[in-house]
Automatic annotation (TrEMBL):
Domain Glycosyl transferase family 28 C-terminal: 234-361
GO MF terms, alphabetically ordered: hexosyltransferase activity
Name this polypeptide is given: Glycosyltransferase 28 domain protein
Keywords: Transferase
Record has Transferase as a keyword: yes
Pfam families recorded: Glyco_tran_28_C
Source organism per UniProt: Maridesulfovibrio hydrothermalis AM13 = DSM 14728
Length: 385
């Protein structure tokens, strides 16, 4: 089976890594991973061929698209991308077109998706099944139902299957998509698509990084890094002032973190032997199992990493929409999880957070949340094709 897997991340990396887990689970299939954001420095599995579109991302005010290459015109990039995707389908003639998020999001990318979907509908590429890959919680809309009506229209016209990467006892789609009962195509909950750490990796990684048995390791992460600067500054200032003995901190600002802000933190860290600042860790999920605590933004993948690792954690939800806070609050009903507020970002507040996390034990409780979403998604995709 040949799968063209479309994933466009415009802000963080959550969409990319969730999609990559599903591509990994399709290990017996040929996956052409079509992406239009900045590619993270991440090794891809052998079954995945990466197809890079000319880059587009959200502008700094989240008001519209802009090219990731500064000297390019938006309309030129859009035309190039649309032509490129269409030619890819003409050449590859896949069995499955797996689209991440659209039509529930990525409305701005209709210019390149609708022409392909129309051509699939007309049979121009052969018999291609179209599947939507959707996360658990959608961003709220205040448009009188126009967005939901458009989603239903596109789903029922173009798509064959909807995969919802959630455990419905934690988050069901109808909580944030009221028109669910108007969808006429089949849909299924797959469980959360979680990255799984390697087994028995904790001791190996602690040895690799020279962390003694009596030392504590705190990880601070801003996810993709386009947001989270305030959190990184707060954690760095608090941790460096505390001068904790036998405690280290690894800080990962994210690959999209502002370079000037990164340089400031990185240079400041040079004065402390127990602080390491990097943009990204390819072994982040494994490394989290070696940690004793984590402070991070509250994206989908981070929350899943907390569930798979059991690491004592505190998360700061992105405040421009309710998605991250809603997910964090739901998960906090099943595991000990500190949800950070603005008061926690002041020096004394963050010191309290760090101290509390470092004395907590790793969670070993069976939370009962379905984290097998990648495998179940792959099974559903194979069955559809």
């Amino acid at each position: 089976m040949k799968v063209i897997h479309y994933c466009q991340h415009v802000l963080g990396m959550g969409h990319f890594f969730r999609s990559l887990e599903i591509a990994k689970a399709l290990d017996k299939e040929q996956v052409i991973f079509v992406a239009g954001g900045t590619k993270p420095n991440q090794e891809l599995p052998a079954n995945v061929k990466y197809y890079q579109l000319s880059g587009l991302c959200m502008d700094e005010n989240f008001g519209g698209l802009m090219p990731t290459t500064a000297d390019r015109k938006l309309e030129d990039v859009k035309k190039e991308r649309a032509d490129s995707i269409f030619r890819l389908f003409e050449k590859e003639k896949p069995d499955v077109f797996l689209i991440e998020l659209f039509p529930f999001g990525r409305k701005a990318f209709r210019f390149e998706l609708i022409p392909v979907l129309d051509a699939i509908k007309e049979g121009r590429f052969g018999d291609v099944k179209v599947i939507c890959s959707l996360r658990d919680i959608l961003v709220e809309r205040d448009d009188g139902g126009k967005h939901e009506a458009r989603c239903v229209k596109y789903l029922n016209k173009y798509f064959d299957l909807l995969l919802i990467h959630s455990d419905p006892k934690i988050a069901s789609l109808d909580e944030t998509f009221k028109a669910l009962n108007q969808i006429t195509i089949p849909y299924t909950y797959t469980g959360f698509a979680a990255r799984q750490p390697k087994s028995d990796i904790r001791d190996k990684l602690r040895k690799k990084y020279g962390i003694a048995d009596n030392e504590k390791l705190l990880i601070a992460s801003a996810g993709g890094g386009k947001v989270g600067g305030e959190l990184m500054n707060s954690v760095f200032d608090a941790f460096s002032a505390m001068q904790l003995e036998k405690t280290r901190m690894f800080m990962f600002t994210g690959p999209f973190f502002d370079q000037n802000k990164f340089d400031k933190i990185y240079n400041s860290a040079a004065d402390y032997e127990n602080i390491i600042v990097e943009k990204f860790a390819t072994d982040f999920t494994d490394l989290l199992t070696a940690a004793d605590a984590m402070i991070s933004m509250a994206g989908y993948n981070t929350c899943m990493d907390i569930l798979t690792s059991g690491t004592p954690s505190a998360v700061l939800p992105f405040n421009q929409n309710h998605e991250q806070r809603m997910r964090a609050e739901k998960i906090a009903k099943h595991i000990p999880l500190k949800i950070l507020e603005s008061k926690d970002l002041i020096a004394s507040g963050m010191e309290d957070v760090i101290n509390t996390l470092l004395i907590r034990n790793r969670s070993t409780q069976n939370h009962g949340i379905d984290l097998d979403g990648a495998s179940k998604s792959a099974q559903a995709i194979r069955k559809s094709g």
